[in-house]
Amino acid sequence: MKSKLIDPVIIATGFCVGLAALVLTKLGNPANMGFCIACFLRDIAGAIGLHRADKVQYIRPEIIGLVLGAFALALTNGEFRAKAGSSPATRFIIGMVVVIGALVFLGCPLRMVIRLGGGDLNAITALAGFIVGIVIGIFFINKGFSLKRSYDVSTSEGFVLSGMMTLLMILFLTVPALFLLSKEGPGSKHAPVLISFVVAIVVGALAQKSRLCTVGGIRDFILFKDTRLLSGFIVILLTVFVGDLVLGSFKPGFVLQPVSHSSHIWNFLGMVLAGWGSVMLGGCPFRQLILAAEGNGDSVITVIGMVAGSAFAHNFKLAGNPDSLNEAKQLVVGGISNTGKVAVIGCFVVLLIISFINLPKAQD
């Protein structure tokens, strides 16, 4: 029974993720954004020209390091296994939806925890939505929802994402002029490249070993009262909270938080989408990167879907806009455009349709 309550590897991973977020923020990453899978995939999408939002374009070494760290450890410990074939097209669409929901909130589940630790109380609303989304996903899982099984494939298939990330890092280091790189805004704020890369390699390896997953922690607690993964979630929160207190960067409140908006209904609904979709996929965006590094081709397709979703969100102005001050120093509450609101509703319809057509009766 004790094994269900605490796992030293998960605790260590949670601490290192929180510490990495603090260190990378201190060294230049945007405030409360030491690690954000959705934001960083969005920046990469912009850097390779998939969207033209010039304030969010950068090759984030954190994503590359996460994948290569997990890949290296999976090979070392014999857990690398090339497999695919579990409803790849559907996973692509769900990956898009998850990231669109996250960018409505302006952060993936991991950044939600980091924002909360830094005092951004808008993350409370998002956390509530995230939990509701997970509960909806669990409801359909209990009804028999499944994206079917995957199958062993050629080993070379499992190297696709790690190979792409290696090539991307080499090109970024040797020919940076190939990429679109922000001159201002969040994309222009970043820690030194090699430090970000090395820190992420360590985090990726630990995440591969521990199976850390923000969605899995809440899901397992609800279904089985298993707190192992949830403990990692809590340790990240506490590490960032204590670290921000020590560094003097803890600033509690709702308005004018870094890259954040206080339009609560859309924070809530965006993270409902992220939670629901992640349960359907079997893991949060952070976990999908790790699974892809282990050779899971379905997670590779999901990651590509997330990149496409981030580009789609910015090309069609679906993502959230931060709170700001106008020229008279009056607060302008951010949020999302009317197009974004329609897209959120459309994403709910998409997830609902996918949930029902993948129930056992619908498959007969």
From TrEMBL:
Subcellular location: Cell inner membrane
Pfam families: Sulf_transp (PF04143)
Main location: membrane
Membrane topology of this protein: Multi-pass membrane protein
Keywords tagged on the record: Cell inner membrane, Cell membrane, Membrane, Transmembrane, Transmembrane helix, Transport
GO cellular component: plasma membrane
Transmembrane feature ranges: 6-24, 63-80, 92-114, 126-146, 158-179, 191-208, 229-250, 265-286, 298-316, 336-359
InterPro entries, per the entry: Seleno_YedE, Sulf_transp_TsuA/YedE
Family: Belongs to the TsuA/YedE (TC 9.B.102) family.
Protein name: Uncharacterized protein
UniProt organism field: Johnsonella ignava ATCC 51276
